[in-house]
Amino acid sequence: MPKNLRTFLQYLEEAAPGEILHIDKEVDSKHEATAILRKLELEDRLPLTIFNKVKGINGEISETPLLFNAFATRRKLAMALGLKADEDKMELPLALSKMYQKLYEPIEVSDAPVQEVIEQGDDVDLTKYPIPVHHAKDGGPYILSGSMVIKDPDTGKYNIAMIRFNVKGKDTSAVHAEPHHHSGMLVKKYLDAGQPAPFAIVVGHHPSFYLGSQWEGPFGKNEYEVVGAAMQEPLRIVPSVTYGKDLMVPAEAEMIIEGYVYPDKMVEEGPVGEHTRYYKTIRDGKVDIRMDPLVKVTAITRRKDAIYQSCWIGHSEHSLIGSIPKEAVIYEKAKATCPGLKAVHLSPAGMGRYMVYLSLDQRVAGEAKDAILAAFISDWHIKYGIVVDSDIDIYNDKEVLWAVNSRVWAEKDIFFIKGCMGASLDPTTNLESKKPLVTRMGIDATRPYGEPFSEVCEVDMDVFNRIKLEDYNIK
Predict the structure, then answer these.
(1) Domain residues of the chain, as ranges?
(2) Would 5-317 and 338-445 be classified into the same CATH topology?
């Protein structure tokens, strides 16, 4: 059976039923659903949550359930890739890195569950679906889990990325695609030519589909093949309703929203609480409202019993679905420069984007700084790079900060690179110049190579390895 959201839910129900929560009480998609998720999060609970009775944008009960937190734990993502456990945290990005090496060409099929229901013309109505308003000051409902599919008009290759859409009406939306993201580059290519940019939004699929869609390697690959690599099977695709074979779409999705970006129409977009958990502000202290391209929705296709999958922006699932593929790419690229690299971790404290921890067995003096530079080059989001010896657990912020405090001589171990490309969503970017520029900082928290250094004190490891806590009635 091909992989899709249904097969994953069934597997999760059987293998880890505690990872799924069904809520049957009526819930409003505006603020209420995410407030419930926040309550759970504050209790350290991150189950995949399905709201079965939800008000849509129009205030009426939607036929479509609302799903959150499919990506909220490393365990769920490990299970999605067929891994047995998540005890070795580096196993997940390492496995994904290996999967990315074996591409699968997509296959065209004739049976498309996602096209069981086709809505076009006057039937197109985004407002009847439970598209959430996530935060108190958000400028309306946002499609945030959907992966935008756009085709390079020159090469015919497909790009996929999770791009935000601010719903404006039944068949209109604003789209925010960063100009240095691959998807933004392709939208710009159409618009610069004075042409509408055709696209599709994939809503609801197997988590491995999204782990493929979040790959951030070199521009120009057919990312349907990368998605197949993460899914470990060819992606099943069909002609879209609007564009036919000129724009193929995933057959196993829950919903496909088709349309085009107007070449000459802009509309206010935002504000929205983004992955930073901030609203971007401007100098007079007002919340930033952007002008972004207007989108026309031409068709909505879906399963008869479709599930609307969303992603809770700025929280665990949003961080993990972005950081795990990045860790895989950073590890692969930095390892080529620094063979002693053992592991890479984009800390949740850095929203899974801005702060990278590197574990290194340093072979020569200066290699630690090279590892940081390699990570900076591998992913432009990174602002802070901290490299530690392999005796430090990079998945434990306390351990990393202990190394910083006990092994760093600031004058020689900390360096800065000014005027680097940054993310426009980052609230620390240089607002004076009105350009998203940042200063990158590297911290070498390794012991000085080839020089004497204090020895770490530890319990007797022979005794430690022999002890079993259950023998001491410790549960």
Answers:
(1) 5-317, 338-445
(2) no
First to last CA, the chain: 41
pLDDT tens-digit series, residues 95-113: 888 899 999 999 999 999 9
Question: Could you give the angle at the alpha carbon of 236 between the alpha carbons of 232 and 238, nearest 5°?
Answer: 160
Measured CA to CA, the distance from residue 375 to residue 381 in angstroms comes to 10
Q: Can you list the alpha helix ranges (DSSP code H) found in 283-366?
A: 316-337
CA angle 438, 188, 242 (to 5 degrees): 135
Q: What is the pLDDT of residue 196?
A: 95
DSSP annotation of 223: H
Helix (H) or strand (E) holding 236: strand 236-240
| Structural domain 338-445, CATH architecture | 3-Layer(aba) Sandwich (3.40)
Distance, CA of 66 to CA of 308 (rounded, Å): 5
Q: Domain 5-317: state its class.
A: mainly beta
The SS3 assignment for 153 reads coil
Return the HEC string of 222-290: CHHHHHHHHHCCCCEEEEECCCEEEEEEECCCCEEEEEEEEEEEEEEECCCCCCCCCCCECCCCCECCE
What is the β-pairing status of strands 290-302 and 172-176? antiparallel
What single DSSP character describes residue 130? -
| Residue 130 near residue 28 (C-beta atoms within 8 A) | no
Contacts of 118 (CB under 8 A, 6+ apart): 241, 299, 300, 301
| pTM passes above 0.90 | no
Q: In this predicted model, what pLDDT tens digit does every residue of 121-175 receive, in sequence order? A: 999 999 999 999 998 888 899 998 889 999 999 999 999 998 889 999 999 999 9
* Whole-Å CA distances, 170 to 66, 119, 138, 141, 422: 19, 12, 18, 12, 34
φ, ψ for residue 79 (rounded to 5)? Answer: -60, -35
Joined tokens for residue 201: 């939004």
